[in-house]
Each structure stands twice: as structure tokens, then as C-alpha cells.
Amino acid sequence: MERSPLPRREDGEGNGGAQLRDADLPSLFIAADVRANENRDTWYRSSAARLVLLVVAAAAGTVLPNRAAGAVGGATFVVILLIEAFKASPATIALWLRSRSLAEEARSVAWRYAVGGSPFALEGGDLATAKERFLNELDRLTQRAREADIHLGDDQGSFLISPPMRQLRQSAWEVRREAYERARIAEQIDWYGKKQSVAHRMARRWWNLALAAQLAGAVAAFLLAAGVVSVSLLGVASTVAAAAVGWSETRTHSRLAREYGTARSRLLSLHARLADQTPERWGAFVAMVEDALLAENRAWVHSREGA
After folding, report:
1. What are 8-55's pLDDT values in tens digits?
2. Does the reported pTM lie above 0.85?
3. Angle between helices 253-272 and 234-251 (to 10 degrees)
């Protein structure tokens, strides 16, 4: 069903100060962000469920009688196939990536406009032309959402230029610089740093689980060979090890840790240049920061598409 573009309204609820939060950004960003998170969560939950069910099937084949094991295993694989078809399908991850890419572009455009970054610069620029250019950019992104089948629900608000965005844009250059440094650059540096630490920790955790499962499999094999136990747990141990590795690969922990570290280093370099900026150079500087953030997002999308 064809959906109408967002209306061009400039009213909305904000925090009333010369600051900017995600909730103050255009409704296009908010809706795309919600869609991205929904499809991401569906993908990860479905992937986790598949791996758990594989372990269940392996355990059933080990401990249950043949007929019972066959019934449980058959039912388990039917559920896995249904998950593959309706939840963990390539369409789900594709919609997640398209929605995230759209959300980040809308966020970037909004920040450029709110703080006077190029191509919406305040210093030496025509204000009416900059506003029209900004609205045209949002129209372009809305059209892209329609073509990519990203549903933009009407429950995420209907404003394009919120009061906090307008107030920040009308503020003095020093206020805009401070807001951009704290709520955009520093926030992104902190976000990438935390994500890098989590990715490192999760990569080690799942790798250790896989090693533990392999060690358990080796012990079980020796006990079986020695006649100490009569039940073979090799299949269960192998499946658990494969599931641990598979989950870590699904989340791409190791690669993400490297990518997050690279992005954080780039932002730290840009942040170090902030003190040298002047009102005349401000628009180009903001554009440089936003281009770096968008480039990182595009690289992330490309790596997920090839995973």
C-alpha cells in the first residue's frame, strides 16, 4: 500500500532548551529508528532461538529413546524452518539495515541544520534557502523510505523542525558549538567506546564458551572410550560449541570491536580540531564530522550485508 509523505509541519514537543536529543529530531528519524530496532531485535531473537533449538535437538537425540528423539527432533527442526521463513529471513536483516541507514542519514541532516553545518550554514548563507534545502532533504529520505518499503508509522510524531531544533539554530555560534560538542561528538565518542568494550568482552565470553564445550566433548569422548559412561555426549558438546561460535559470528563481536575502535579514533581526531574552528569554518567542520559518521555507518551496513 502506498503511503503519503510526512506533512511539512514545524510544531512539536521539545525540551525547551538550546540542546538536542534524539526525541527532538524529525519524526522521520524517530520512525526509521523504531523500525530498525524492531527488525534488529527480531533478527537477534530469532537467531538465538534457532541455535538453542539446535542444542535441544542434539540433546534429545542423545538422551531420549529413538522414537521420542525422532518426534522431538522433527518438531524442533520444523520450528527452526518456520523461524527461518518468517523471522530470521534475509528480508528481516535487509529491512533492519535499510532502516538504520535511513535513520542515521535523517539524524545527520537534522544535526547539520540545527547547528548550522554545511549545506545549511548560517554564516553567510540565505536562511530561507537553507530551510528549503533541509526540507527537500527530508522529502528525499521519505521517498527513499517508501521505495525501500520502510513503514513510517504516524505514532512517532509529525514534526520536521522541532522547537529545540529551531531554538538551537537561532542560538549564538558558541552555544551551537558547545551543544554539538557535547550532544553529538562527545556522545558518539562515548557510545563507540562503550560498544567497543562490550564487543571485546562478548567476543571473549562466547569464545571461552566454545572452548569449554570442546573440552567437555573431549572429556566425554575419553570417558566413553574408557567405559566409564555409556551415553555419548559428543553430539551435544559439538552442537553447543558450534552454537557459541555461530552466535558470536551472528553478532560479529570481534569485527565490531575493531570497527568501533577505528570510528572512535577518527572522532577523537575530529574533536581535537574543534577548538580551532571559527564561525566562518564552522559549516565545513560540521559537514566533515557528519560525513565521517555516515561513512562509518555505510561501512557497517556493507559489512553486515556481506556477513
Report:
1. 334 344 334 467 899 999 989 999 999 999 999 998 888 888 878 877
2. no
3. 20
